[in-house]
Write a structure and sequence with these properties.
With 151 residues, the protein is mainly α. The protein folds into 2 domains: 44 residues, no CATH class; 81 residues, Orthogonal Bundle (Arc Repressor Mutant, subunit A). It contains 6 helices and 3 strands. It has a 3-stranded antiparallel beta sheet with strand order 1-3-2. β2 and β3 form a beta hairpin.
Length: 151
């Protein structure tokens, strides 16, 4: 991680500079956390995006979801959900079928294999939470409030 003098006590640190430093620090920390999470998911042969899709599908199971609905709930709005879902279908993690009410839409649902992978890989997600253990209860509440505000 870069050496930032965040919220330095010197006069050189103007409020505008502190906003930039905070933004850079947030990007660096989030990149590190995403890298750590992706590495934790490697043994399950899924990516963080695939994990997010499995989680979305599992939350509404047995109701199928359209690609558009999945995309709207993804943390990474730029991800190519159609391509990712097709890779997951080939692995047997999801079912895809044409929506009978609107043939332009594809309904996606989680398979039993997908549920198993999600269940097994959830330990990577909960282990990932251990990075937060260095924060006090007040700090974690404050962090949650700040992140929700930024979201």
């Amino acid at each position: 991680m870069s050496q930032l003098h965040f919220m330095s006590s010197t006069n050189e640190s103007s409020p505008e500079n502190q906003y930039g430093q905070a933004a850079e620090l947030l990007v660096n920390v989030s990149s590190k956390l995403i890298y750590t999470f992706n590495n934790a998911l490697k043994p399950y042969q899924i990516t963080s995006q695939q994990f997010a899709i499995l989680k979305i599908l599992n939350d509404v199971y047995p109701t199928p979801v359209t690609i558009k609905q999945i995309r709207s709930q993804m943390p990474d709005k730029m991800s190519d959900v159609s391509r990712i879902v097709e890779k997951m279908r080939l692995k047997g993690l999801v079912h895809r079928k044409i929506n009978l009410d609107d043939r332009r839409n594809v309904d996606v649902s989680i398979t039993s294999e997908g549920k198993e992978i999600l269940s097994n890989s959830y330990s990577a997600y909960t282990g990932f939470e251990s990075h937060m253990k260095s924060l006090s209860e007040n700090e974690i509440v404050m962090l949650g409030l700040i992140l929700k505000k930024l979201q």
